[in-house]
Amino acid sequence: MEIKPGLSALITGGASGIGKGLALALAEKGVFITIVDFSEERGRQVASLVEKINTKFHSKLGFPSAIFVKCDVTNARDLAAAFETHLLTYGGLDICINSAGISSSIPFQKDQTDGTQTWRHTINVNFTAVIDSTRLAIKIMEASKRPGVIINLGSASGLYPVADTIYSGSKGGVVMFSRALRLYKREGIRVNVLCPEFVETEMTLKIDSNMVKLTGGFISMEMVVKGLKEHSNRMTPKAYTPKSPSGPLPPDSGLTQKIF
């Protein structure tokens, strides 16, 4: 798929971190974007930034080139409503990026609750919501009979285990789930999973500094976006893993298919 003005993308977790970085990168190509996030203030700020960037490509549209939809991605009805809003605004869906993600500071085995607000919530945000969002995206893409791209945010910790058990397990689920969807390529729908090491975001700044040092330090957002651009039309084996300069590259890395 050629990324060009007029395509539309829906991005969960688009108000911050990698989701925000990819939203701004797509805006530089003139893509219409729906930012889906629980943080209304930051979500509206990103949507406003996207609209400003998009003025280079679009004027007098009669509709916004970027919108924000407040959504709890763990609520299936909320998520379905976000996709419906996107569809009503842009008439279709070309790109879906599932980047909403969290981690819990309480080890699951020491949690004295049922996990609703801790480890269970982490699984619901990181994995279950990705399944729901991917399902909704595929339904829209199949109905439109147009090529589509789905990018799910995994993690290097989904390729090899780390101390954060629930986070690692949830991201491992995202990796395998995404790879299992490769058969949809026959229908023109490409599903890929991005597995970066520690990207410097609000969430990863809470990670133990010793663990970060073991992998060679943080990766900049610029490296992630640059890597996606460089690999967007390249065929390499399995999940793309941007890595820190001195950090290890997992043996099972690369792409099953080009990203866009």
TrEMBL record:
Q: Where is this region: Disordered?
A: 234-260
A GO term, aspect molecular function: oxidoreductase activity, acting on the CH-OH group of donors, NAD or NADP as acceptor
Q: Which Pfam family, giving just one, matches this sequence?
A: adh_short
The GO cellular component terms are: cytoplasm
Superkingdom classification of source? Eukaryota
Alphabetical keyword list: Oxidoreductase
Would you identify the family this protein belongs to, as annotated?
Belongs to the short-chain dehydrogenases/reductases (SDR) family.
Q: What is this protein called?
A: 15-hydroxyprostaglandin dehydrogenase [NAD(+)] isoform B
